[in-house]
Amino acid sequence: MIKQNFNLTSLNTFGVSVFADYYCCLESESQLTTLRSLVAPIFYLGGGSNILLTKNYHGTVLHNCIKGIEILEEDESSVLVRAYAGEVWHDFVTETINAGWFGLECLAYIPGTVGATPVQNIGAYGVEAKDYIEKVCVYDFKTGNFEYYQNEECHFAYRHSIFKTELQDRLIISVDFRLSKKAIVYHRFYPALQEYLAEHGIAQPTPKDIYQAVISVRQSKLPEVTEIGSAGSFFKNPVITTQHFSELSIRFPQLSSYFYDEDHVKVPAGQLIDILGFKGKYESNVGMYEKQALILVNLGGATGEALHQHSIKVMNAVYEKFKICLEPEVIIL
Ligand code: EPU
User: Fold this and answer.
1) What integer pLDDT is reported at residue 189 of this predicted model?
2) What pLDDT band is residue 38 in, cutting at 50, 70 and 90?
3) Which residues are known to be catalytic?
4) Model-level pTM?
5) Residue 237: CB within 6 Å of ligand 1?
6) Which of 16, 169, 201, 278 is 20 to 30 A distant from 250 in Cα terms?
7) For position 198, what pLDDT does the model report?
8) How far is the CA of 278 from the centre of ligand 1 (A)?
9) Has residue 235 got a pLDDT over 90?
């Protein structure tokens, strides 16, 4: 069950070749009690779609492959569905849409597993996982206990949760989603989705239409992780003061912003990187993707360190030009 000197190339979507001293594939909860003596440090791996491995891992990579989807509660208007951490996220979303349970359609086609969704509170097209998560079950290796965290105890924020801070050592076992049985009526769409719906002559989209639109838009802008190494958006979209934004808009009138709070706006990091001319420029097979500048890509054979160095170069250039500190969204190991 535990393997030594294990190559992680196929387990990270950047396709970086590094080794873990120990690797263990966790397939059921019943295995947990036998795993209390794993060699530390332990890194919990899901779909490997949000990590950049820069060096060999001297510890144990615990690959969470616990699968299963079950209905916990159901009434006329909603369903509470439990998905285990090792389920492939997009497949789970597809199952919910096909079953007539709505809410997750905007989150279709995001790579990774269910277990990662609460950790970084994945989001797209105005929806975040937190909008539908009711509770999260985790395992504490120290006490050997399972713990449940209700939505409000998870401290969800933009690409953030308590599972990135205080509860970093807990292993996510399952996530309960409260989904609607009544189709959600959308009043506002992201321009990219709007364009798709207009092109397809869809005036009143069903959740399934939104699901299709999201897949199509993501396919057109984002690289397929099976073809090009990447981990989705590499940086978070930074939040800056409205004062800072006003100053920047004089120099860069094209710069977009989204409301954050009364004194702050969120700025698209992809646009900052694009303005700097990094988009589609590759050096030794590393660069920011030609269709979306927020995505760091490995066109083949790049090392994790080379990818990391490129990200630092981009961060420095963004700081130099805009006085904005970009923060990686991806976990760098
Ligand atoms: N933009 C450019 N040039 C680029 C890329 C973007 O000018 O190369 C501009 C776009 O024209 C647009 C704005 O930046 O005005 C925002 O771009 P986009 O709608 O593509 O979204 P994003 O802010 O870059 C975020 C999420 C994505 C999510 C999309 C859609 C983050 C870090 N990323 O990207 O999530 O799919 O919105 O909702 O918040 C992910 O987290 O891995 C991810 C892909």
Assistant:
1) 77
2) confident
3) 159, 233, 329
4) 0.95
5) yes
6) 278
7) 93
8) 15
9) yes
